[in-house]
Each structure stands twice: as C-alpha cells, then as structure tokens.
Design brief:
heterodimer; A: 426 residues; Rossmann fold; 15 helices; B: 332 residues; alpha/beta
Chain lengths: 426, 332
C-alpha cells in the first residue's frame, strides 16, 4: 500500500511486519522515532506477541537482545552514533555467538565534538565486528532491507545492521510502498534458531575458546559472510518475486554499464546511502550534451559487509577512473570505503580518488559535486579531497596553535571564528 | 555397600543436626541423591573454592524449586572460566556466558524470550562474582532491578577480582590486601570508607526479594533460593563465598570463614521484601573479628609484631554497626 510517512515510521512498520518478539528500546537521536513507532504498535495491539523493553543503556539493549535471541526469540533494536560505540562490546559478542539480531543504525557522526547529524562514522567504526552491514539509499529501500535482513540473519545465524542516514532518511517524509502482512509472511518464515537455551536440551553457549580453535571459529565468521555474499543477490531476486520491486542486492549501478542508451562511463562515482540520490541527479545533469556530455556513472554499494569485491571489480571493468565519495574518515589515511574499493580494483590500473564529504551533516550539494566530478574527469583532483572544507577556519586554528601554547579547546575556538550562524545546512 | 553412610548425630561447630535424622521431605536439596548436580564435578575450580560450592548449592536448589525448568546467564569470571573448559562443561543446565558486565541484561532478554514463547514455567537466573555484579555489571543489574524483570540474580561475593589475580573490587572490605590496594594509601590493605554493599542498594530498588547468605549455612541458602523461585519479578541473592587463593586461607577453612563472617557480624545474613527487612539469621555465638581476620593472609599485615589495634577496632566497629542495623543478636 502506498503511503506518505516518515522514514522512521516506515521502518517501524516494516519491522513490525517481521513479527519481532523482543524489542530493546533506548533513546538516541536520530533513531528514537523507530522504536517509538514500534512501541505504539505494541501498545495498540497491532504488533502482538512482542515484549517491548525499555533498557538503561545501549550496552543493555544489545545484551537483552543477545539473551532474547539465545532464548529463541526474534530480537530487534535500533541505535546510532555514541550508542553504537557504547554497545560495541556486546555488538562483537552477538556476532561471535552467532545470534541473528537485526539492528537499525540511524547513521550519525561520532564525537567529540558532539554532533547529532548524519555521516557514516558510527557503523563504519564497527566494520570488522562480524555483522553484515546493509546501507539503504531511500526510505523504501530501508524498509525493504529490514525484511530481507531478518531472513538473511536467521538463515546464516548472523546479526545484521541496516544502516540508514540519520535525519536525511529517518526524518524525511516520503512515499513508500508498505507491504502487506501476507507478503512478509510469505517471504519470511518463523525464526527457527540454530542454537537455543532450552531446559529440554541443555547446552552451554559462550565457552572460552583457546588457541586450539579460535582461528577456526573466526574463520567460520568469515565463511558465513562469504555465504552472505552469495545469498544477498538471491534474496533480492526472491524479494522481487514477492514484492515486485528491486531492493537490496550487493550493489546498484547507474549509467555505468553502457545500458539504457548511455555510453559507458569513463568516470564512476562510488558511494553509499542517501547521497546516491544527489549524485545521480548531478550525473543526469552532467551527462546532458548541453552540459558537456560527461561520460560519468554511479556505483552504489548496498552491502558494505560483506564487501562485494567482485561486483565492484565488474562494475569498474570498463571505466578509466573512480571517485569514492564517502561520509567517513579513516583519520591518518583517508577513506574507509575507498580503501575497500582499492582492494577490489587491485591490478586494474585505474586512477582512484577519495573524497571525504558530508561529515557531521555538512550538506553535499549538486553544485559542489558538479565541480568535483568535472575536476575528476580531467584528472585534476587530489588523491584525497575534503569536499567543501573551509580552509580559512582550519588554517586559522593551525596558526593559533603554532603561536599560543594554551590555545584552548580547538572545536570551540573554530566555532568562535565562524561566529553565530543561522540554523541552516552547511 | 549401601548408600547409607555412618550416622553422625552432631557435626561439631555447625549448629546443625545431621541431615539423616530428618524426615526425607525436610532434608536439604544437596542431601538428595537425585539432586541435579547442576554444576557437575570435574570443573577447574581451586581446592576449597567457595564460589563453586555456592553455585552448586544455589543452582541445585533453583533447579529443584523449578522442576528443572531453569536457564542461567553467567558473567565472565572464575565461575565462567572454571566451569566451561570446552569441550568439557560442568553445566547440566542451559547456560550462556556473554560478557563481564551484562549477565543481568542477558537474563532480562532470556526472561522476555520465555514469556513471549509462552514458556512461563521456565525460569531465569543470572550469576556473577562481585566484580561482575557490584562494579562492571552494576548498570545492567540496576536496570534489571528497576524494571522488575523476572530474573533471580545471584552474586557470589569473594570480595575481589580473583580470576584476574586478586584485585580490589567495590566489594573488597576495608583493610583487606589485594594486588591493587597496595599502591593506594599508607597501608597495604583497602582504604576504609570505600566500597558498597549491594544488597542494601538492591533493597533501595524495592524489588520483591533480596537476601544474603553464606556457604556456611546450606539450609538457609537453599531456603532463600527456593523462596526466591516462588516469586516473580526481580530478585537478588548475595552469597559470601570465601576464596582460599585471594584470601590467603586454607582450603579446608572455606566454610569456617564463611561462618565466622556471619558470627562476627561482618557479613549480615538477612532477607528483605520490597525494601523492608523481613528476617535475619541471628548470630548464634558472637565472636570478635580477630577470629575471622587472623586465618586470612589478606589481613596478615594487621597482626605483625605490633598489631594494628586501631584498624582492628574499626573493623570491629563495622561488625557492631551491622549487628545494630540488622538486629543480628536478637534476630528479626
């Protein structure tokens, strides 16, 4: 059914359609509306047979989900930013124990300085935690990915993060096609745990594993992700058969592969999440003959973990260069997504550019992207670019620190330099 | 040879008449040949481990009380490490270890799963040492309490981090020496005025049931666990479990020290319901704290050539305060 609703609400409804049995709720922006929405459905009776637990921290949220999942219940929670870091120990534990918890990450920056706006620093900081990470481009895809995530998680006994851009998606009112309960039931079977704590058949879960088996247990985690690499495209097909639309998969290409009457792209922009929309709009404009007819295309990465090395390689097979535009920063080296992409294209002889953009909610505009892609097309881009960085602010601070030992807290000094600003996107 | 052992009419010093003189229905769970041995033999605990004894008593009693419909969540620590040297496990019950600081929250999740699955007869216990309970697991513990989740949390308190090599916890008593009390302050022992008594904090949550017990009094411990399993909601039992390794005591003194902790008044044994004290286990024969302190090397620095009379007096004052506060001489 088509409806106009907030992204968080769309996800809440989709999660409810998946018949979760235990929901762990702890407030953190911009995730809060999702668990609130589920809570309303529990209260109204729309979502039956579900325990809604208000926990005292994100660490407890994930721990309660671990207990619930080990007890055989379908468990869900949502978090963001500091919350994801606060639960990090339990995040690793959930995947290590092989418990198929599904968690929404409403992607948000990590402090200090504290910042509630969107970037991908939070979930990317957990890239090696053993969870599958799927990134939604739109509210529709966020909704659909949750339904796929429960199925995939439970098949593989692995937890999954569905990542959606905080505010940009979670708080945006858009049209979505909400599936029916019958459709979701047809796609997602009831949870049949691989391991469960049951007095009728007592098992011990979580024993210490020493050097004699630790490597093998860890390898199994990798093998599971490789299985996911095969299953994710199949699931997208199965999803399409039931729901009638393309959602999920490992990657999406746009104007990149010489189809739809487009020339093959010489430059391919790679990104994750909602910024793909702005990038596609920019590419549409730049491909127009009156705007120079740039041979430029797009590769969206939906599955960040497992990382689709082969799909990226195939998508970049015929281009000359790629630009990875990412909302994350591996401090001291540059890009996180870019490092993964470079791994994929090893030996292909492509020029590659890393662009760090949109940190802490900095708006990524078509104007900036047009200039950026134009420069990239002429191979005039630096290997590492910080999009729309205000160099005056940075240089002032560096100068201040050179001159004065007690230059004070840096972030506050830089804010003072900028002065009071109107509440709008920068 | 029958299973019947030689009848002893009186076990010296225990105040307990031999179990075999009682009618079968009044005998302790541990005396029953059909007990579950929930924490089975073959584990790797030290000789004289109070925690192994406490866990065995408590979980067998809980199994008995629930008709063997029990699941346990375990914090990281000695109990977890010594019980599951895989491929061997001592646990005869469904058991999960997740992390050091989240046993209470994992148990909350398990209880929610049992409820949502309609397995209302399956009960959940969480267990951990004092570090996993009073320090790193305290947030999750308090959260489980205030939500009144249907979990019995059992703390096996040996008054320090024994698994990592005897470091101070917030349950370490004043003057007790640990590896990490030595750098702090003038004395090798723990500074006075620090630490917390979590049973009192549990009572402040006004949960349905809080009790303390020691491994010296099997019947009292079993009765409290049994009672706890008749109640729904958050319950807390704090069991004093001497640690020969960390306390520097003889392995054969574990039960004697637990008894002395109670008989001095240093460890008050009581029950509380909804925040109110309901009963205490009265001191049978009061003894001075020296009797408890002297057999333990962690207090040896108090009994050198010149005994630390002031420090010993402070410890005695703590015992006296407990006796007043919990009415340990007259009993409640």
């Amino acid at each position: 059914m088509l409806k106009q609703c907030e992204g968080s609400h769309a996800v809440a409804e989709a999660v409810a359609l998946c018949r979760p049995e235990v929901i762990c709720a702890y407030p953190i922006s911009p995730q809060t509306h999702i668990v609130e929405g589920i809570g309303e459905m529990v209260k109204s009776g729309e979502l039956k047979n579900c325990e809604f637990i208000n926990v005292e921290s994100e660490f407890a949220a994930m721990s309660v989900a671990i207990g619930a999942s080990a007890g055989g219940a379908r468990a869900y929670t949502a978090t963001a930013s500091q919350g994801l870091l606060f639960m990090a120990e339990a995040v690793y534990n959930a995947s290590g124990l092989g418990l198929p918890i599904v968690m929404t990450v409403a992607n948000r920056a990590i402090g200090a300085p504290i910042n509630i706006w969107n970037d991908h620093s939070d979930s990317l900081s957990q890239r090696d935690c053993g969870w599958i990470q799927l990134f939604a481009e739109t509210n529709q895809e966020a909704l659909d990915l949750h339904i796929q995530a429960f199925k995939l998680a439970e098949e593989l006994s692995l937890p999954i993060m569905v990542c959606m851009d905080g505010f940009i998606l979670t708080h945006a009112y858009e049209r979505v096609d909400m599936p029916t309960q019958a459709q979701v039931d047809a796609f997602l079977p009831p949870y049949e745990p691989r391991q469960v704590l049951d007095p009728a058949d007592p098992v011990s879960i979580g024993a210490m594993v020493g050097p004699e088996a630790f490597m093998e247990v860890r390898y199994l985690a990798h093998a599971k992700q490789m299985q996911a690499l095969e299953r994710i495209p199949q699931l997208a097909e199965e999803f399409k058969a039931v729901f009638g639309r393309d959602s999920g998969g490992l990657t999406h290409t746009y104007c990149a592969d010489g189809v739809d009457g487009n020339d093959g792209a010489e430059t391919i922009v790679i990104a994750m999440g909602s910024v793909l929309g702005t990038i596609k709009d920019t590419v549409d404009e730049m491909r127009k003959p009156e705007n120079g007819g740039h041979k430029i295309g797009v590769l969206g990465i939906t599955s960040f973990r497992p990382f689709p090395l082969e799909a990226v390689r195939v998508a970049l097979a015929n281009c000359k260069r790629f630009v990875v535009l990412e909302k994350s920063l591996a401090v001291g080296i540059g890009g996180i997504v870019a490092t993964n992409v470079r791994m994929a294209v090893t030996g292909m002889g492509l020029k590659g550019y890393t662009v760090v953009a949109g940190l802490g909610g900095r708006a990524i505009t078509m104007k900036s992207l047009t200039g950026l892609f134009d420069k990239a097309g002429r191979d005039e881009l630096e290997p590492l670019t910080f999009l729309d960085l205000d160099w005056n602010v940075v240089n002032n601070q560096l100068e201040r620190e050179k001159l004065v030992r007690r230059s004070g807290p840096a972030a506050e000094a830089m804010l003072r330099d900028i002065g009071a600003v109107a509440a709008r996107n920068y | 040879m029958s299973n019947q052992q030689t009848v002893k009419f009186y076990q010296t010093g225990t105040f307990t008449v031999g179990n075999r003189l009682l009618a079968p229905e009044d005998r302790s769970v541990q005396a029953n040949m059909q007990r579950t041995n929930s924490l089975n033999s073959g584990h790797r605990a030290c000789q004289g481990c109070g925690e192994a004894l406490g866990a065995r008593y408590a979980i067998d009693a809980a199994m008995n009380a629930t008709n063997r419909q029990l699941i346990a969540a375990n914090a990281t620590g000695c109990l977890e490490v010594f019980s599951t040297p895989y491929p061997e496990t001592s646990w005869q019950i469904p058991w999960i270890h997740s992390l050091f600081g989240n046993a209470a929250a994992v148990a909350t999740g398990l209880a929610a799963a049992m409820k949502v699955k309609g397995k209302n007869n399956v009960r959940v216990v969480a267990q951990g040492g004092d570090g996993g309970t009073t320090d790193i697991g305290f947030g999750c513990l308090s959260g489980m309490f205030e939500r009144n989740d249907d979990v019995l949390y059992i703390c096996y308190d040996n008054e320090a981090y024994m698994n990592t090599g005897v470091q101070r916890s917030s349950a370490t008593p004043g003057a007790a020496r640990t590896a990490t009390t030595m750098p702090v302050g003038a004395e090798p022992g723990n500074v006075f005025g620090q630490g917390k008594f979590v049973p009192a904090i549990a009572m402040a949550h006004e949960i349905p049931y809080v009790a303390t017990a020691t491994v010296a009094d099997l019947r009292d411990l079993e009765a409290k666990v049994t009672k706890a399993m008749t109640i729904h909601g958050a319950r807390y039992i704090h069991i004093l479990v001497p640690c020969p390794l960390g306390w520097g005591s003889a392995s054969h003194d574990t039960i004697r020290l637990a008894r002395l902790a109670k008989e001095t008044g240093l460890f008050p044994v009581f029950e509380a319901e909804y925040g109110e004290l309901k009963s205490t286990l009265a001191i049978r024969r009061q003894v001075p704290v020296e009797d408890y302190l002297k057999p333990q090397k962690r207090f040896a620095h108090l009994f050198g050539k010149t005994p630390a009379v002031d420090t010993i007096a402070r410890i005695q004052a703590q015992a006296d305060r407990n006796i007043r506060r919990y009415k340990l001489l007259e009993g409640v």
